[in-house]
Specification:
- By secondary structure, this protein is of the alpha+beta class.
- 53% of the residues lie in helices and 20% in strands.
- The two termini are 47 Å apart.
- The chain binds adenosine-5'-triphosphate and magnesium ion.
- Magnesium ion binds next to α10.
- Magnesium ion is lined by residues 309, 312-313, 355.
- One of its GO terms (biological process) is phosphorelay signal transduction system.
- Keywords: Kinase, Transferase, Two-component regulatory system.
- Residues 188-390 form the Histidine kinase domain.
- This is GAF domain-containing protein.
């Protein structure tokens, strides 16, 4: 039982005691398999006489506490009627306790004047999960019974709600974990591909190119050599632009540069089909350290990937001619906004595919928000906003102070 559970159960019994007006209330759980009853909480003792009696019990029972002795008990026939059949019981405490707790314990109850027990089963989702047991010196009035019954129905609802909230929290936790895995899988696949292209594939192309060039050098000048040199040029452009370019697109040089530089690199790839401008808010004067990253790597990658996907969507789905990427990098606010002049869409009517899902998940990893404003015919605005908290916020404040007022991410 967690501390949160303990507090929750304690509140139930303390409130029940006051609502019904009895000296003592117990909340119990029933384990049908073993036929045992476990005490979850008991209302607090306020009467000094009860405290004294508890001291007497401890002496009688070799130092054991009354609550430990009755912590888990085997159910007798009466208690089975309560927990298994769901019957409310209203009878002398001595009958309820018969054969279940040591005689010293039931004697003690009598000494402190607890004679009559009202036990009401608690049902959650149609199953009996336990009971609230009210103990009183005298028989219960009809009004007390009605209040006790009503109180128990409320407790059932509270337990049910708590269970639902717990399940919801668990689902949110699982979903977040899945999203996190999805993001890191996407990143690691891209990183692997980038490394492979940048390293092995590029090197092999380079070696083949050199061999062909040596061959061309040995050839007599003429059409054949001319053709070979043209192929060499094409091969070089494949290596330089396609392979190297692709590897950079997969894993941007964002690890060594700031987001601003990486986004400028990304924007240039769309020319001339889509004009993409990149700007920084608030604007900054050029500084020698402008290309040094200020944000932590995971945050840089998040901003980059959001802009990358938003631009891809603008180009691919929106058929946009112009797009603007605006970057905000301040200690108290980090974000990226991509505006396009494309066809637009109804965000509520399309299904989020991997693109939008991952964008959102990446931003939510930093407790940020992703909003999409779009209408058919008016273009699209995708905005990711992160308000740095805790350690990240402190880190950014320090970093900004060290570097003067501004940086480009
Ligand atoms: N800028 C945009 N302009 C027009 N439509 C868009 C834009 N951005 C998103 N959409 C619409 O939203 C849908 C979902 O986008 P999302 O990026 O999640 O998936 P996708 O691009 O279709 O596939 P992928 O998972 O490969 O990214 C798109 O299919 C498109 O209909
Ligand atoms: Mg997409």
């Amino acid at each position: 039982m967690t501390r949160g559970d303990q507090h929750f159960y304690q509140q139930i019994v303390d409130n029940a005691k006051h609502a019904v007006g009895v000296p003592w209330v117990q909340l119990t759980a029933f384990d049908a398999k073993s036929g045992t009853i476990k005490q979850l909480a008991v209302s607090r003792f306020s009467v000094p006489r009860i405290r004294r009696a508890a001291g007497t019990f401890r002496r009688l029972a070799n130092g054991r506490r009354i609550l430990d002795v009755v912590a888990t008990i085997d159910a007798n026939a009466t208690l089975r009627a309560l927990y298994s059949d769901g019957q409310t019981i209203d009878m002398p405490l001595s009958m309820v306790a018969q054969g279940t707790v040591p005689r010293a314990a039931s004697r003690l109850a009598e000494v402190v004047g607890l004679r009559q027990t009202l036990g009401i089963p608690l049902r959650v989702n149609g199953e009996i999960v336990g009971a609230l047991n009210f103990h009183s010196p005298r028989p219960y009035s009809a009004q007390q019974r009605t209040i006790a019954e009503a109180f128990c129905r409320q407790v059932e609802l509270t337990i049910e709600n708590r269970e639902l909230t717990r399940r919801l929290d668990e689902n949110v936790r699982l979903l977040t974990a899945v999203q996190r895995r999805l993001i890191s899988a996407e990143d690691s696949v891209k990183r692997e591909l980038a490394e492979e292209l940048h390293g092995r594939v590029q090197t092999r192309l380079l070696l083949a190119w050199r061999r062909l060039q040596r061959l061309a050098d040995t050839m007599a000048e003429g059409t054949l050599q001319h053709q070979l040199r043209a192929i060499l040029d094409e091969l070089d452009s494949i290596r330089e632009e396609d392979v190297r370019g692709l590897s950079h697109r997969l894993m941007p040089p964002i690890l060594s540069t700031g987001v601003y530089s990486a986004l400028s690199f990304l924007a240039a790839l769309y020319a001339p089909e889509m004009a993409v401008s990149v700007s920084l808010e608030p604007d900054v004067v050029e500084r020698p350290d402008i290309h040094e990253p200020i944000l932590p790597e995971d945050l840089r990658l998040t901003l980059y990937r959001v802009a990358e996907e938003a631009l891809a969507n603008a180009y691919h789905h929106g058929e946009a001619r112009n797009a603007a990427v605006r970057l905000v990098v301040r200690p108290d606010k980090v974000g990226v906004c991509v505006v396009d002049d494309g066809l637009g869409f109804h965000p509520g009517e399309v299904q989020d595919n991997l693109g939008l899902t991952l964008m959102r998940a990446r931003v939510e990893q930093f407790s940020g928000t992703l909003t999409i404003h779009s209408q058919v015919g008016t273009g699209t605005i995708v905005r990711a906003t992160i308000v740095p908290q805790g350690a990240l916020r402190e880190y950014l404040h320090r970093a900004f102070q060290e570097r003067g007022a501004t940086s480009r991410g």
